[in-house]
Amino acid sequence: MNDLQLANRILELLGGNGNVNSVTHCVTRLRVTVNDTKVVQKGELESVPDVIGVNQVGNQTQVILGGKVHDVYDQFIKLVGDTQKSEPVEEEKKGIISRFLDAITSIFNPILPAIIGAGLLKGILIFLMFYEIVSIESDTYQFLNVFSDAAFYFLPILLAYSAANRFKANPYVAASIGGILVHPNLINMMSASDSLTYFGIPVTNASYASSVLPIIMGVWLMAYVERILTKYIPKILKTILVPVLTILIVAPIILIVLGPIGTVIGNGLGEWFIGFYNNFGLLAGALFGAAFPFLVLIGMHVGFAPVMLQSLTTYGVDYIMGLNVASNSAQAGATTAVYLRTKNRDFKAVAGAAALNAIIGITEPALFGVTSKLKKPLIAVSIGGAVGGAIAGYFRVEALGIGTGPIAGVPLFIGPTFIYFIISCVVAYIISFVLTLVIGFEDIPAAATQSVEEVVVSNPETIDELKTTSLLSPLSGEVKKLEEVDDHVFSTKMMGDGVAIIPNIGKVFSPVNGTIVTAFTTGHAVGIKSNDGAEVLIHVGLDTVELEGKPFTMLAKEGDLVHTGDLLVEFDIQAIKDAGYNTITPIVITNSNQYDQIEQLKYGTVREGEAILTLEKKKERNGHNE
């Protein structure tokens, strides 16, 4: 399925456009904040081709897509439109720590690319200096230093914008307040006097460049201030007065109250961790390395970003990064072992790509698509990460920025502890690799059916017969063109070409000989791959997923081998109509791009089992499509 079809499938299983509150993405994950987690069909999402895994963190559903995430995101936002809805998400009741971690995660994820890019650039600059490729006195050095420092120095502005999206405040007003904290005049005022006042109220001297908590706390307050002002200010004056009063109220409170408090908390967290690390480096490294993959699984790993930034700001180096990379190396080792051991060709391809990504430094495909899925390799990852983390902790491995690794992070670790960085990574990789081979895992069974390519190769005499095939009607009723369906996803053929039927009998039969690849638990849709390669989606009614299966009975299950005429689904037509839903049923060839022509044969009334479409395959050469 192409990127648009994949995006549409993900959107459907997330509960449709109405359930999406906001969406963003990181290196490997599509991160969708939903209004109601109960309607998200996580199991179905995990079974979608090209979806490596699914992770739920609070109201955010993370769909792990690996390298496809950018392209799928581009198509996804076209389907959902505005990705920042105005109404706040109704979150499930949870503890204050859980809510705090959810907030930190959603605020930091969008800005991580900027921080990682700046961190790696800083490492490259150190590398160039170390080998005397650039001089510290040169203009080139000065430029590169500015490039690598900017994201950290102006971090309050980046965090302000991201936090405003999280707390549903005006992101541009928030960014302006972030700019106040790093304004050159404010910095000069702070450095020139120890007794600043604002209307007679003392203002504590503090440096907010690269700070984290002050601006997050400030934007949280700003969201409430904006809502109150919006509620009471007359509509005709809102555009002018709301932003002005918001800045006049929030900025002083940050400088007088929240800024000093946030600075004390941030410094305290950083100093506590550094103190614990310095006194118990081996233990701290082992515990963190062992726990890191599980922290990633539940989304808590981003909660350490403020501590890492605080350490960089205060001490010029970070120690958590070395522990992260040791765990990443263990993830790569275990996944490589799975790649070598698995007998499933499709899963071997997934594991191989995931192992390569993990060696570079992107571990989500390995974690969600391989080790956590197989479970036993995750134990090996934890043990390998613990040993590698213990080594990194004992020798105080230093990072010059925040990034990823092993390979991508090499420039960040160039310095006096570089050799111990290499040792910790190699040891973690080897231990997890060997342990995975020793303890083994329950392999994922190979698919029971042959692929289209296998059929063609093993039966070359059938090539001509496969060029043109007929699709039988799965329903009885009135045939309509797909363009007549009152749903732009189907009518514009985003998911593929096909036909639609308004059913008069509540039964869906298999239109082909093939295999069930998708059988929704809600009963409203079923996907079949025919023996000659056609991928057929039958979607009973429009938006009927919202009925949560009440009018439907799904009689098939994924992996079933079916023949034309086999009964797949039963449904109550009148119940669907009474609930206010359209019963028109699109029948879509989701791999339409593999066909030169798809022609509708039937118009008007049709009976189940009659031919309704002809599918003409693209011309083939030497047993393969051109």
Automatic annotation (TrEMBL):
Record-linked InterPro entries: Dup_hybrid_motif, Glu_permease_IIB, PTrfase_EIIB_Cys, PTS_EIIA_1_perm, PTS_EIIC, PTS_EIIC_1, PTS_IIABC_b_glu, PTS_IIB_1
Occurrences of domain PTS EIIA type-1 (ranges): 487-591
Gene3D superfamilies listed in its UniProt record: Glucose Permease (Domain IIA), Glucose permease domain IIB
E.C. number: 2.7.1.-
Protein's UniProt keywords contain Membrane: yes
Protein localization: Cell membrane
Domain PTS EIIC type-1, residue spans: 102-455
GO MF entries: transferase activity
Active site: 26 (phosphocysteine intermediate)
Transmembrane segments: 107-131, 143-162, 169-187, 207-225, 237-261, 281-304, 378-397, 417-441
Record's bilayer topology term: Multi-pass membrane protein
Organism superkingdom: Bacteria
Pfam families (UniProt xref): PTS_EIIA_1, PTS_EIIB, PTS_EIIC
Protein name: Beta-glucoside-specific PTS transporter subunit IIABC
Lineage of the species this protein comes from: Bacteria, Bacillati, Bacillota, Bacilli, Lactobacillales
